Each structure stands twice: as C-alpha cells, then as structure tokens.
Fold each of these.
Amino acid sequence: MCGIVGYIGNQDSKEILLKGLEKLEYRGYDSAGIAVMNDNGVQVFKEKGRIADLRNIVDEDVMANTGIGHTRWATHGVPSTVNAHPHQSNSGRFTLVHNGVIENYDILKREYLQGVALKSDTDTEIIVQLIDLFVNEGFTAEEAFRKTLTHLKGSYAIALLDAENNETIFVAKNKSPLLVGLGETFNVVASDAMAMLQVTDQYVELMDKEIVIVTKEEVKIQTLNGEEISRDPYTAELDASDIEKGTYPHYMLKEIDEQPLVMRKIIQKYQGDNEELTIDQEIVEAMNNADRIYIIAAGTSYHAGLVGKQFIEKIAEIPVEVHISSEFGYNMPLLSKKPLFIFISQSGETADSRAVLVSVKEMGHKALTITNVPGSTLSREADYTLLLHAGPEIAVASTKAYTAQIAVLSILAEVTAKSRGLELGFNLVQELGIVANAMEVLCDSKEEFEDIASKFLSTTRNAFFIGRGIDFYVGLEGALKLKEISYIQAEGFAGGELKHGTIALIENGTPIIALATQESVNLSIRGNVKEVAARGANPCIISMKGLETEEDSFIIPEVNELLTPLISVIPLQLISYYAALHRECDVDKPRNLAKSVTVE
Ligand code: AGP
C-alpha cells in the first residue's frame, strides 16, 4: 500500500520526510519521492526503487521547512520515475501525493483535460491538473482543491503544496487512511502514526470527505462544504522500540518470536477483575441476538476466521459462515434474519473488507471488528471492536496477528458460551497459558525447522500442505506463508480431497507437509500421506505429542485439541521463513505485496 508523509515547521523537512518514508517501507512499494517547498518554490525528487535510491538524488543543499513525501505501490501505471509521486501540475504551481484509487479518472480526463498534456499514466495526475484548470478559471487554490475533490469518485488520501503559499499543506481524505500529527512548532501528515513517531505521538484522525488546512501553527479540519470540525488528538500507542528490528535480521522472525508474549498480553488484557475473561457486554448481547454469524476477512485473517468458526460453533453453538471479503462484497449470499458480521483485519484498512462493512451497515446490520490497529477505518466504522494487542506487525507476512486473532476469537466464543450457560469443559485462561509456553518451545526449535526447510523445500518448485478439519485450515495458512515470502507455488489442501484430482500433481520428491494434531482424523490423514508417498511424494508429518509415530518429522507439544492452530502454525511460519532465506528472497517486503491492501 502507498504511504504519505508531510511536514511543516521550523526545521528542514528533507530528513524528516525521508525517515518517515523509511518507517512506511514495510507496507510495500515500488517507487518513492519527496517535494520540498521554500521561498524559491517547490523542488521534486522522485525515483523508481527504494528510499535508499531516492536519498541518492535528493539535493542536500536545498533547505525547506515544508514538504510532502510518498511511497508508491503501483495501481495505475507501471512502477517508474515518471509515475512516481509527487506529481506536478503543468503550471508547476501545484504538487501533490495521493493514496487510493480515483475510479472515474478516465471520465474526468475526457471531460475536463482534453488537450492537457499529461506526463504520467497515473490516476493521481488527474487531480493536480484539475486543480490547475480550476485556478485558471479564477478559483483560489483552496476553492479549486475543494471543487476538484467534489468531482473525485473512489478513495483518496491527498497532501498538496501550492508554490504560491509556502505556509500551508492542503490535505484531504476519503476511504484511504490519513492522520495529522500535532507539534509545538510544527505539524505533520502521515498515512500511519508510525511514520512520524520520530517527531510526535499526538495524532488526529481524519474522517471521509474531510479537508484539512495545515500550517505550522494550526490544523483546521473542515467538511467539503467548509463547516469547521474540532476533534481531540489521541496519543499513538506505539513506542519507537516496537517498530525497530533490534537484533533480529528480519521483522518476520522478531514477530514470530513475539507470539508467546502476545498470548500472555491478550490473556491479561481480556481478564476482568476476578481473573475471568471478559469482553464488552454489548458485544456479548450482539452475539446472543444473532441467529448466524458472518466472518468477513482476507488472506491470513480469512484463515483465522476459519478457525474462529470452529470455536464459535463448537463452544458457543452459534452457526457461522466465513467469507473472503472480495467475494462476499460482490456475491452476497442469502443472509439470515438476524446476522452479526465479524470483520477480522490486522491493519483495519483492507479495502475489500471495508467495502463489505459499508454495505452491511447500510443494510442496518451490526458489525464487530477484530483488529490490531485502534482507530483504524474498520474499527471506527464498526459498532464494536476487539483489539489484538499484538503490537505493530511490520513484516508483510502476517504471523503474530494470525495467532492473536485466533486467541481473541477463542475468548469471544468462551465469553459468549458462558453467557448462554454453556460450559467449555476446560479453563481457557489456563489453556492459553499452556499454549504460550508451547509456543516458546517451538520458537526455541529454529534449527530443526531450518533443517526441515532445507530438506524438503530447498529446490522444489511446488509444495502441498495437507490436513483434515482444523489442520486443513492451518495448512491453508502455511501455504500462504510459504508462497508469499519464498515464491514457491504452494497449496493448502484437505487431505481427503487430494484423491479427487489434485493427486495427479504428485511427482517424485513433491514435498507434502502434513499436519496431524487431531485424534479423530489422525489415522485418516496418515492414510492420505501414504497415498501420496506411494506416488513418490516426500512427506513431512508434523504431529502433536500423544499422536506421534516414528515416521514424523516434528512433534509439537500437547495443547487442548481445539487450540492446536495456535501452535501448529509456528513450524509452518518458520519453515517458510527459512525456505525464503535459502532462496535469498526479501522476507519482510516480498515482491508485489503490500502490508495493508487499501485498494479493491
Ligand atoms: C498475510 O500474510 C498477508 N500479508 C495478507 O494475506 C493479509 O493477511 C491480508 O491482506 C489481510 O490483511 P488485514 O488482516 O490487514 O485485513
């Protein structure tokens, strides 16, 4: 996803902007740029590639107290210097950066910009050329900016410079995330508090269709028709150490290792005064009022939702459907009479999920968001929020957020079950504590997983992760981890389904990673392993203590059978990490990917 930063104050802005963009690198990008403004006008420096490449072209001698910056993840127009942001109007007066997608940019181009020479293939450039056009028609810069915004359809987070007014940054937001940060002698703009934590931890959320006039003394928030809005700042929870790698070679490895700590933090955060697990009563009521629950999510969060379905159905006895956001949004099933929607999203900004939230809210239904980011769009726009308390997840490949989502879903199920007079048959606080200890054991077994990765995945072009029941869902997550960071074509598959066609892909040496943690299907999944081994496959069985046999490659510690996904995923995370390392892939910032996908 793209990232935006902006600074206006008493210091030179170049280094502040570049450091801010570096804090947003984890989101994934293919080009970057900054524009700085002083009495001599606006200077733009932009480059395809990394921030390090951008640094090489920035003129150190240019001093400017005002500036904006951008990391681009290409949507319209290939990754290139000319398509990189910032974009300038043909007059050179206006310079702008933008996150999001302008859906009607083609129409606007045809309607208003015939004969205007466009430099790039981006939707963004349309915005800055329209502002030029409206100023040429006699509007002031601010009026032209507003007028342009009223014509845009789609999502945008914008920061705009006017070369004739170097005391102001103009800002606007619709659907794409954007914040303004407050300082004593300066103010900042950022897609994410992390970017500008270096200078302030005081932030004001912006809502859709708002415009902001930012000077170094003041931040004026207005609606598009000029109505003033006042909104209190919040203190960004992150602390700088949270977003540093420390001694780790990669954020992904650090975040895998943080999982035991996150488990313990979740227990502590959700324990009430009497040590019982507790959640907001209104969420419990919403769960109990529902006749069916619809879990909506994408990617890893979708995989966590599949596990959450098991908890809510088996523990709280409420029927659950789990849907991929981008499918549900355009192919909505027949809904039950009293649905409750649960959105699972680490970032809280996934556009596919947010689009569904907007639709179901318009239909008058209630929604709960489970997210790692307080104040995120999906949190703000839902009726209820449950936080993951996992700390910032920087690596594109989601790990600690996945296990945190599963833990929070188990708590949601348990508290709801208790409110219905249902018994779990086990003490969830104790079991989650056992899980945290088991996680530690696995995080201390890295060498064994490095060996497994090198034995099974070092040269293969494909791999299968198979399991039955809840192990199948974890297999889907393992396959996603492997393919998104090592680029090995991997599939998660129901063990019993292989023989219905896919087994044709099994060749000599095809790695098959099989999970065997569920007693009820233990013999069946081992039968499936025999089927593929008989056809030349190279099986790697990961079983749970108590079910192990001497042919297994790794045995995970015993935990409550329903909670096994919390630990069986860790070997898959680590095996994928080492397979990617072995192939010298960019583990934290895999090609083509963004940490949070804020475009549909
Ligand atoms: C997971 O490793 C991926 N980075 C991706 O599938 C991610 O889970 C998905 O884009 C959903 O993101 P969200 O949880 O922030 O909504």
Note: DSSP finds 19 helices and 25 strands in the chain.
Amino acid sequence: MLRLPVTTRFAPSPSGPLHVGHLLAACEARRLATLHGGRCLLRIEDIDTARTRNPEWVRLMLQDLVWLGLAFDGEVMVQSRRFGVYAAVLEQLRQRGLLYPCFCTRAEIRARQEEISRAPHGCPAARYPGTCRALPPELVQEKLAAGVPHAWRVNMRRVEDSIGCPLWEDLRRGVQRCVPSACDDAVLARKDAPVAYHLAVVVDDAAQGVSLVTRGEDLFEATHIHRALQGALGLPVPQYCHHRLLCDASGKRLAKRDGARSIASLRAAGWSPQRLLDSLQAALRRGGRWEE
Ligand code: GLU
C-alpha cells in the first residue's frame, strides 16, 4: 500500500537534450505526486562529469521542462554540488570494511567474465567476477602506495553479513527480497568520478525525503543494489514504482541518443506541449509504443 504523504522525484542525467523518455519519467513522478496530494522534486544527476560536461544541457533541460508546463516543488538538487557529502559516506563505508579497491581494467574484467560464463556454474556474465575482493592486504597497500589506478567497489557479501536480506516494495510487482550477495559488487567511486550513480542516488533520495521512487523498469535490478546500500547506511527505504519504457514501432527501446525525439526537435517541428503530452498518453495506451 502506498505510504502517505507522497514525495516523488524526477532525476534526469543531463547527458543530452531532454527526450520523450524523460518526459514519461517526469510525468509519472508528477502524476503520482499530484494524485496523492504530495510533492514532486527535481534533481539533476550530473556527477558523471565526462558524460554531462556541457553545462548548457542543464539549462536547456530546465527550459524544456518550463515549456512543457511541468512544475516541481521545493529546491532543485544538483548532484555536482554535493561531492563532499558523497565523499563522507564513502569514507564511512571504507572505514567499516564494506568497500575494497578494484585495480582491474575493463579488458581484464571482460576476459574473466567470459572465462566464468563458459564454466558450467558460472555467475551471470554481467557481474564483476570478484577478482580484487580478496587480494592480500599487503598487495593492496603496495598498489595503493604505488598509485595504481583503482575504483572502489562495495563488498556485497559483507553487506549481507551485516544486514541480511532486506525487503523492498515495488507498487506494480509487489514485495521484493534483496539478496545482497546476489548483487553485483557495484563500483561506488572511480578515479575519474569521485562517486558513482548507485551511491549518489540512495544518499540523495534519503536527503530529499523521497518516499516513492518512480523510474523506468530498466532500473528494476539496480534497486536491489540500492536497497542493500540503504541497509548498509541505515537510510530510510522509499517505495518504488518501475514504469514501462517507451519503444519504437519495432518494439525497440527508444534510446536517449536518438536526437530526433528530443523535446527541442519536436518543438522546432511545430509540436505544442499538449500534443506531446497527448502523444505520450496515446503511446502508453499502446503499451509504450511511441508514434510521431
Ligand atoms: N539519472 C537517471 C537517468 O537519467 C535516473 C536515475 C533514477 O531515476 O534513479 O537515467
């Protein structure tokens, strides 16, 4: 059952122009908040400075939201202003032995994953194979002292030892059980990005008092990682609603990089905000199939 009062959020990553997929996410967050007399917040997820390096994207996104008539409550949270907060949380996890440095290169990880997936009882190929999880401490110290580039991963086995297997609720799919040791040892910080999405999102949902996270179903699996991190950090646990994604006529998910479906390009082609919102509703009635 939905917990009241409801606070939702729309949390776009400004790695390109606002597109119709964003519009769906924004409308879902706004709709559920309004329906239940709650608040809908806006958060700019711009921690990945390599992908979101163009500050102009944020301005254009905000401009598109205004043009669409989508209003948000409270202050806008901007993740790139919060690196200090994330650093403190990472340090806390590190002190508690819940993080380990990972020195693997992408190529090494891929090679090991392929090896494992060929074995009869290998782990799912997409997961980190755990190479650096149990490196001898002297070797870790040596590599750190030598400045070998590394990421910091969460040790999900240790998280499970500490919090067990907690529950979370998806409003469409019901109660889910998170088994931390079955989750990826996700990267929480990298040398070129001081914090990664998985950590920033749980810290910020808690900081903003988000009670209901609405987002696309492509992030359903990621929510297990988020639930494990919430448990490890003692953070409040929101409810979730993973909505379906928009697809094209062939059923393929609409990709962000598909500039043709950016809000700005549709506006330039003469679409009004109402036509866009009506088309979104029509797409939802067709099971998510977007037609122009
Ligand atoms: N920033 C993410 C995106 O634009 C969404 C994250 C979330 O809703 O948790 O895909």
Note: Strands lie at 7-10, 39-44, 77-78, 99-102, 151-154, 167-170, 174-177, 187-189, 212-216, 239-243.
